């Protein structure tokens, strides 16, 4: 019974990781669009004021969820560092999430 519960919790964590990775990437793109409008189009910073805090919160959430996921799924140090590094370039968290699924690093339930 406890294996089933542990398995369902791991599957739930894999889903949370996926959602946060996608949300962080979308907020990054939103922030870049906001910056483009601020500096190139309308010279208003409303996009940055909206997407800046959203992206900041999702960035922190991604880092925390990535560290928890790394511990639960027993990722290597290299995989964990790659997950954390993926939070820096725009939309790289989606690439890392797909890589992790492809390699089975999020368990079989994530596939």
TrEMBL record:
Coiled coil: none annotated. GO terms for cellular component: plasma membrane. It is found in: Cell membrane. It comes from the Bacteria. Residues 15-101 form the DUF3817 domain. The chain crosses the membrane at residues 20-41, 48-69. Keywords: Cell membrane, Membrane, Transmembrane, Transmembrane helix. It is a multi-pass membrane protein. The keyword Aminoacyl-tRNA synthetase does not apply. NCBIfam families: integ_memb_HG. This is Integral membrane protein. It comes from Actinomycetospora succinea. The lineage of its organism: Bacteria, Bacillati, Actinomycetota, Actinomycetes, Pseudonocardiales.
